[in-house]
Design goal:
The protein has about 450 residues and is of the alpha/beta class. The protein contains 13 helices and 14 strands. About 40% of the residues lie in helices and about 15% in strands. Strand 1, helix 3 and strand 2 form a beta-alpha-beta unit. It is globular. Bound molecules: phosphoenolpyruvate and cobalt (II) ion.
Length: about 450
């Protein structure tokens, strides 16, 4: 294989990059990003690889969750806290319900760039460059604001840094303490079926903690009860940004993309000879690849060979996003091919991206039953093949939004305009997310 460098992706065909109007301005920004501190430390990425290796071996489960696209405008301490809360709640439900350790990985602190099916879109009869995420342009349908602006790379870096800082404070400073399980349940969730089921688990955890204390166990000394490991991830789409944050680790002399702990390659940029695969093959972070219904077993194996020639467990996560109706036919040949090739991968189900449709009133949405249906199909396939259904990858928010249909407190088509605030794809609200966690825990137990 050819020599790798943080810039070697430039010699490959590259998809989904913005049409930056001023190449020199972009170069200047990339250069100044290169001088800024890394957001994560290489040792953390190595630790996550080891954790994901546990998942690949069937001894743990991955919960990867967060926004479709983080926003520069809808950005506050409360929204970060509420997103963290719902992920922690889901993790409690999954861990308590299945007895399996859960690795918690946010689509957060860097999830700004969006691949698009078309370079332009038409709004009210006017053709505009597509919105590509706040790291590139603005979502407002105004031509001037759709021009890619390299200064947004710097803004994305700073927002990622402050988001990550708050997440680290919350997860190590007492907010994620297991004695706080009740406090994570927001009022609008408590009044729902999922919220009440969650409260019952929280009460049992309280009782177990009291029991341990009564037995004389020093709970204060047990760090794992008071803080959680919470990791960050995003799609490594804008390669200039990722290149600028790629640093050589002084301990191992290996390269790491220090913009997040884990990076993934999207469905539209996973060509094995393309720039995105070239870039990620050289960094030592754990990496994910999305696989849609057109992926072949040969492609999946080629991706594994290129991205993980040393077959390190936890290095590769294959994230299937097939659609509820397609998963049971499209997924088995991929699993079979990768298993036959002997690659230690971790299989994860993204039940969101192939179940999107436009409602009668013109909103992009997803139905809770389809999301659940794809997860059920994913579990059924793994059960039949004797492989481990390693995790789920979902788009959610801690807010009381009405973006996805269905759920126990059903969201109907007429409700969609009420609180539809996503910057990109429709997200599960907190109630739907916790409901989903209960269903996944049941599948894991079975
Ligand atoms: C996404 O994860 O938001 C996304 C665009 O996914 P995919 O690449 O699977 O379409
Ligand atoms: Co999305």
């Amino acid at each position: 294989m050819s020599e790798w460098s943080p810039r070697s992706w430039k010699d490959r065909p590259v998809e989904q990059q913005p049409d930056w109007p001023d190449a020199e301005a972009l170069e200047r920004v990339v250069k100044s990003l290169g001088a800024l501190p890394p957001l994560v430390f290489a040792g953390e990425a190595r630790k996550l690889t080891a954790k994901l290796g546990e998942v690949a071996a069937g001894r743990a489960f991955l919960l990867q969750a967060g926004d479709c696209a983080e926003s520069f405008s809808d950005y506050s301490a409360d929204s970060i806290r509420d997103k963290l809360k719902v992920i922690l709640q889901m993790a409690v439900v999954l861990t308590y319900g299945s007895g399996v350790p859960v690795v918690k990985l946010g689509r957060i602190a860097g999830q700004f760039a969006k691949p698009r099916s078309s370079p332009t879109e038409t709004v009210d009869g006017v053709e505009l460059p597509s919105f590509r995420g706040h790291i590139v342009n603005d979502d407002a349908p105004i031509a001037a604001l759709r021009v890619p602006d390299p200064d947004r790379l710097i803004a994305a870096y700073h927002q990622s840094a402050s988001t990550l800082n708050l997440l680290r404070a919350f997860t190590t400073g007492g907010f994620a303490d297991l004695s706080q399980v009740h406090a994570w349940n927001q009022e609008f969730v408590t009044t729902s079926t999922a919220g009440r089921r969650y409260e019952a688990i929280a009460a049992e955890i309280d009782r177990a903690l009291r029991f341990m204390r009564a037995c004389g166990i020093e709970l204060e000394a047990e760090a794992s009860l008071h803080q959680v490991d919470f990791w960050t991830s995003h799609e490594a789409l804008i390669l200039g940004y990722e290149e600028a944050l790629t640093r050589e680790d002084s301990l191992t002399n290996d390269w790491y993309d220090c913009s997040a702990h884990m990076l993934w390659i999207g469905e539209r940029t996973r060509a094995v000879d393309g720039a995105h695969v070239e870039f990620l093959r050289g960094v030592h972070n754990p990496v994910g690849v999305k696989l849609g219904p057109t992926a072949t077993g040969a492609e999946a194996v080629a991706l594994c060979e290129t991205l993980n020639p040393d077959r390190v467990p936890g290095r590769i996560t294959l994230i299937s996003r097939m659609g509820a109706k397609t998963v049971e036919t499209a997924l088995p040949p991929l699993i079979q091919a990768v298993s036959d090739a002997g690659h230690p991968v971790l299989w994860v189900c993204d039940p969101m991206h192939a179940n999107t449709f436009t409602s009668e009133n013109g909103r992009k949405t997803r139905h809770f039953e389809d999301v659940l249906g794809e997860i059920r199909g994913f579990f059924a396939v793994h059960k039949a093949l004797g492989t481990w259904p390693g995790g789920v990858h979902v788009e959610l928010t801690g807010d009381d939004v009405t973006e996805c249909l269905g759920g126990a407190e059903e969201v109907f088509e007429d409700d969609l305009p009420l609180r539809y605030t996503t910057t990109c794809d429709p997200r599960l609200n907190a109630r739907q997310s916790i409901d989903l966690a209960f269903r996944v825990a049941e599948l894991l137990r079975a």
